[in-house]
Amino acid sequence: MRRNEPTPExxxxxxxxxAASAHEQPVGRRRFLAAGxxxxxxxxxxNPLTAxxxxxxxxxLPWIDAHSHIWSQxxxxxxxxxxxxxxxxxxxxxxxxELMAVARPEGVGRVVLIQHSIxxxxxxxxxxxxxxxHPNRFRVxxxxxxxxxxxxxxxxxxxxxxxxxxxxxxxxxxxxxxxxLDTPGMKAMWKAAVETRQAMCCLINASxxxxxxxxxxxxxxxxxxxxxxxxxxxxxxMRDADIKNLARLARHKHTTVKISAYYAxxxxxxxxxxxxxxxxxxxxAFGPQRxxxxxxxxxxxxxxxxxxxxxxxxxxxxxxLSTSDREWLLRKTAERVFFYK
Length: 341
Known about the structure:
Layout: H1 29-41, E1 63-68, H2 96-103, E2 108-114, H3 117-120, H4 125-133, E3 138-142, H5 151-158, E4 163-168, H6 184-196, E5 199-202, H7 209-218, E6 224-226, H8 240-248, E7 255-260, H9 276-286, E8 291-294, H10 307-315, H11 323-338
Parallel strand pairs: 1-2, 2-3, 3-4, 4-5, 5-6, 6-7, 7-8
Helix pairs in contact: 5-6, 8-9
């Protein structure tokens, strides 16, 4: 995959939306690199709190970050997809240790690692290795090629390795993204997930919600996760019609939503309070038991955004949340969906 092609992996790379104008794009990764990726490469996160990283045991850190990416400069052991080299890594390094240096000071002891299709596409080995080294700390949302007949078999084989979900998205089907839910392999994956409980994690735009809604209706026992509010607000507008379409998915009992990637939505900067009304509507529709907080690091720690502002929105920022609500949003939902195995 060439660097100037549309890339699906995270909201910071909103180049996946060709209709978005330049001023609508979230802060780019190059700006993040310029702001201090050298500090990350040295093992010091951009958030100044990490100058004194927490030394508590993970068991004493209650919260779960349900969505973060990691990668390594060890490209000999973990080769990059296509013709990419280390020079394409941006930031140059964001390992699991660098991630935890940011997360642990905020009480986050466990993380759901999301396969980075830009750098590793369907090769999940780096994330699986992180689970091997830290089996209680990490779970993985991996990727398999749904154009292969053995997609469902690959799902099952990855489950014992800590892969409890799979990222699915129209964005890597550049020639015909409208068919992303129609391949035999994709349909087999949704059916296999009823047995394995591996969540189908959808990186989509709001315009894709009706298709996902229909797929959920056809597969009512399949666990489904919607990433990043279905990118509602990526253009700065939280449209009522889009929010209603997302809330409509609540009628499917196994569907949950990640309230995440604040850096890319609304005003795209702390304190992110403009997202309160949308979160409130989703709480009314899904309840806290089917919503989960996530940061989408390292992209949440770029420019004026930071990890603390992300978790603070749920941990301290919404006065109407009860202690029980916060526990579901910050731990229990992600624990139920991803840490069951």
